[in-house]
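Why Adenosylcobinamide-GDP ribazoletransferase? Reviewers of the renewal asked for a concrete example.
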Amino acid sequence: MNETSPMIEVHDIPVAFSLLTRLPVPVDHARAGLRGARAGWAWPLVGAILGAVAGAVGWAAMWTGLSPTLSAGLALAVLVLMTGALHEDGLADCADGLGGGRDKSHALEIMKDSRVGAFGVVALVLALGLRWQSLALFDGAGLLVAMVLSGATSRAVMLTVMAWMPLARSEGLSASTGQPRGVTVAIGTGLTLIAVLLIAPASLIAIVLLPLPLIILALRKIGGQTGDVLGGVQQLAEIGCLLGLSVVFS
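Here is what the prediction returned.
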């Protein structure tokens, strides 16, 4: 990462899209490597955009007469397709590695394995089920707002955890991206935090509490974070946001 580069560049937005999604966004890969974690301020913005697209699909489905459950499922499917199930894969790997690993090296070895075990399958089913059922509680406009807010908030939490939690290994996606600085985190999370405080401040409790057990377990078991851990954190923070919003508005 270039220490003399500015804190914010407009090119950070496509860099963030290329990292967090599977959308064919044109990006300068040399610039992406140079910016590294400094582009992290745009992660919540990307999450909000993804949530807006998926939420709009769900809202349109409801408008055509599709049931809230099916509309929420369709919106969730669009979201997963756009991200390439990147964070879901991280959650599954975390569950397998932290749940089945005997020690740090064994846990990290399991997390690098592309196969999904019993812990991972259970984690995915629970995560997708909770997100689907939470989204089904909202009407069209509520679904859109919930997906925008949860998309931004969960990636803001991921950015924050990445900044202060030590690396568990020296290679991998998280290590190659680098750790964001405090200013990057402040820029990335500031507007998101304000939006949550204005719309549903009580949901902050769930947003913070749900990822906490995974963070503690990762610190104890492998001594820090990896890309998989961050993916798991994002999923749990998203679930926490949706659950909090559903309690407030349903």
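The longest helix spans residues 140-164. This is the kind of structural detail the renewal will allow us to pursue systematically.
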